[in-house]
Write a structure and sequence with these properties.
Layout: H1 2-39, E1 51-55, H2 61-70, H3 77-86, E2 95-99, H4 105-111, E3 123-126, H5 133-144, H6 148-155, H7 158-167, E4 193-196, H8 203-218, H9 222-228, H10 232-245, H11 252-265, H12 272-279, H13 315-322, E5 331-334, E6 340-343, H14 346-356
Antiparallel strand pairs: 1-2, 3-4, 5-6
Helix pairs in contact: 2-3, 5-6, 10-11, 10-13, 11-13
């Protein structure tokens, strides 16, 4: 009887403690549901007053959503972005639009695909695949007149990077602040051609347009990342290694398979581009003495992935990192002709190396 009485007392205490918490959780869920449902509705179904909105060339979905919210066309920019993502709307066009507060999100999204450009691009910046942050700074400098020092100062400013983290939390995470990382934004400025309506836009506009593009591209691979068990940072790091090792003739999926096979076996990745990144040099050949550089990026000395990306990867390398080929290769070698030879054992690798590269 005593034990039964104690059990009842325990149940009552648990009920008294958990009941308020459950009520709060239920209330929060209901509140969130009501808020999202409201945000998916027109701002004012009865207000058909025309509102002119200009969407600049090069605007990302993040920028477009913010413009729409600022002009009172949508209730919540974040909800609009998720709506667009889940409905697979794409190919939004720059232009001068006429919206009303009575329009649904579906009507707004469809209209954004038919814009007439009213401002010509005065500046185009092309960021090729495989470029590093310092190289991108040079490209921007050559196109805009900003000094590379000025650009790098902005790209490495901790306060500014923290602002970017708040704006793009799905892409920029605390991983980029690892003490061993050389540049927090390395690998996060997506390779593409960017158009701007000003000859010299602000550094903030250019940088955020590139980060927003990374967000836009990676949004397509959310499920793939979850399936593969990769964070955004791990994905971009692996993709950067593939990008730097790949040649025009390379099979990126096979290169990815070698890296994953080595990681699974606990072998160091031993990829030369990480050594060059550690050295801070661009050379056509890595020598044995280079492999001794003391750096967390040196994958000959340290197992696992390097602290972060060593360059910005293109979409092909991102896809390869998510969908590697199934092989039993542990080595690969790029020949002077650009072909990539894959081998299973060190002896096979050394024979091919002696044949095509010679002694270092």
């Amino acid at each position: 009887m005593l034990q039964e009485h104690e059990a009842k007392t325990v149940r009552k205490i648990v009920l008294y403690i958990t009941a308020p918490l459950l009520l709060l959780i239920i209330a929060a869920c209901i509140g969130l549901f009501v808020y999202i449902r409201s945000a998916l509705q027109p701002v004012d179904p009865n207000d058909r007053t025309p509102i002119q909105v200009d969407i600049p060339i090069g605007s990302s979905i993040y920028t477009i959503a913010n413009i729409l919210e600022k002009n009172g066309i949508v209730k919540d920019a974040t909800i609009f972005r998720y709506y667009v993502k889940f409905k697979n709307h794409a190919d939004f066009q720059a232009g001068n639009y006429t919206f009303t507060k009575a329009m649904t999100l579906a009507q707004i999204a469809e209209q954004l695909k038919t814009g007439k450009v009213v401002k010509e691009a005065k500046l185009k910046i092309t960021v090729p695949e495989g470029k590093q942050l310092t190289q991108i700074a040079t490209i921007i400098s050559q196109k805009t007149g900003y000094s590379t020092e000025e650009i790098m100062a902005k790209l490495t400013n901790r306060s500014y990077i923290e602002e970017l983290v708040e704006k793009y939390p799905s892409v920029l995470t605390s991983d980029i602040f690892n003490k061993n990382i050389r540049y927090a934004l390395e690998g996060y400025l997506f390779p593409a051609t960017y158009s701007f309506t000003e000859e010299k836009p602000s550094l903030e506009e250019m940088i955020e347009t590139m980060v927003a593009k990374t967000e836009e591209v990676l949004a397509k691979y959310t499920e793939d990342m979850e399936t593969r068990g990769l964070t955004v940072h791990q994905l971009l790091t692996m993709a950067s290694l593939i990008e730097e090792e790949a040649t025009e003739k390379a099979d990126r999926e096979k290169i990815a398979s070698v890296f994953y096979n080595r990681l699974e076996k606990g072998m160091p990745l031993q990829t030369d581009p990480t050594v060059l990144y550690a050295l801070g040099q661009h050379k056509s050949r890595v020598y044995y003495k280079d492999l001794e550089v003391n750096s967390p990026y040196n994958t000959y000395m340290h197992k696992g992935l390097p602290p972060g990306p060593i360059a910005n990867a293109g979409e092909a390398s991102i896809q390869a990192a998510l969908h590697p080929a199934e092989t039993d290769y542990f080595y690969f070698l790029a020949t002077p002709a650009g072909d990539v030879i894959f081998t299973k054992t060190l002896d096979e690798h050394n024979r091919e190396k002696a044949k095509y590269i010679g002694k270092q």
